[in-house]
């Protein structure tokens, strides 16, 4: 099982909801924050199809899965899995055109 996200690499804005809860006064406030996309350069460098991707494991132990992300022809692509091995994720990424 895995998910794929893709969007423009340049000029993309993400919207995130931030909810602040005040337990003492029994109130909450939700704000929508808009941020410019910035590619995360952390993680292990993986090269395929003349591209440079980054892989970050989900956990530091032997649990499979993680995040594989790269930019291809102006599009940001990210594969996320909690079950597939890094090797299988790279195989899928190589097949994407």
Number of helices: 1
How confident overall, as mean pLDDT? Answer: 92
Residue stretches low in confidence (pLDDT < 50, at least 5 long) are none
Number of discrete domains: 1
Strand order of the largest sheet: 1-7-6-5-4
Gyration radius, in Å: 17 Å
Structural class, from secondary structure content? mainly beta
Into which percent range does the helicity of residues fall?
Answer: 10-25%
Defining traits:
97 residues; mainly beta; 5-stranded antiparallel beta sheet; 1 helix; 55% strand; extended
Can you describe what's shown?
- The chain has 97 residues and is mainly beta.
- The chain has one domain.
- Helix content is 10%, strand content 55%.
- It has one helix and seven strands, in the order E-E-E-E-E-E-E-H.
- The strands form two sheets. Strands 1-7-6-5-4 form a five-stranded antiparallel β-sheet, covered by helices on one side. A two-stranded antiparallel ribbon has the order 2-3.
- The two termini are 20 Å apart.
- The mean pLDDT is 92.
């Amino acid at each position: 099982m895995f998910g794929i996200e893709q969007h423009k690499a340049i000029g993309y804005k993400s919207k995130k909801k931030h909810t602040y809860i005040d337990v003492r006064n029994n109130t909450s406030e939700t704000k929508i924050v808009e941020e410019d996309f910035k590619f995360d350069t952390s993680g292990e460098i993986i090269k395929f199809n003349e591209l440079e991707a980054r892989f970050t494991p989900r956990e530091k132990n032997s649990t499979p899965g993680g995040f594989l992300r790269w930019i291809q022809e102006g599009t940001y692509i990210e594969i996320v899995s909690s079950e597939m091995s890094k090797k299988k994720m790279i195989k899928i990424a190589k097949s994407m055109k």
